[in-house]
User: Fold this.
Amino acid sequence: MHHLGVVHRRPERADRTAVEALSRFGVATVHEAMGRLGLMRPYIRPVYEGARLCGTAVTVLLQPGDNWMLHVAAEQVQEGDVVVAGCTTQSEDGFFGELLATSLRARGAAGLVIDGGCRDIDDLRRMDFPVFSRAVNAKGTVKATLGSVNVPVVVANALVNPGDIVLADADGVVVVPRTRAAEVAEAAARREDAEEAKRERFRAGELGLDIYGMRGPLAELGLTYLD
Assistant:
């Protein structure tokens, strides 16, 4: 399928209730609940402390040093979308800043995840417009080459399809396929309930060695205690 110079205007988005359900959980919980899938590489970091987002992906394929397609993508953004941008090759230029954030916010965007650079960090913090990026970089970009919008993209080793749910917090970024959203939200809730029960036992002074039944397997492998 030809993926350059294409804008898909009507991608199917994940159900809004599934987005709301997943937004209650942290990235680590969702990643584990999904079978340890969907995680972006850990170099994608929030550009300011406390940034967090959850929404449906409007995907962008950028060319290195060129942010034209982010402007094209802005027109496709609906309330609650997250712009998720990959690049045809590694680039840490400052593709995104306060002006584009202002534009995306006016469209109802919930934030940006970009495998590239971002700038105007103080302004983004003041706006509380959450951005998760590969780098912070003041270097500007041009508008000269075509990429695409709302095509499947690989962003920091994670496959993102238009309409998938993207969740990001201080622990990283996880992508939940649109078709699995409700199921993953239920699994995340079960996981949190189980963790709360364990938390109470840890608070009471019980050890992981006993809670998780580790003593037998450790002894079988020959772990020896010396006094």
User: Anything to note?
Assistant: Helices lie at 16-23, 27-33, 68-74, 98-106, 121-127, 181-203, 208-211, 215-220. The CA atoms of residues 92 and 116 lie 5 Å apart. The chain has a mean pLDDT of 97.
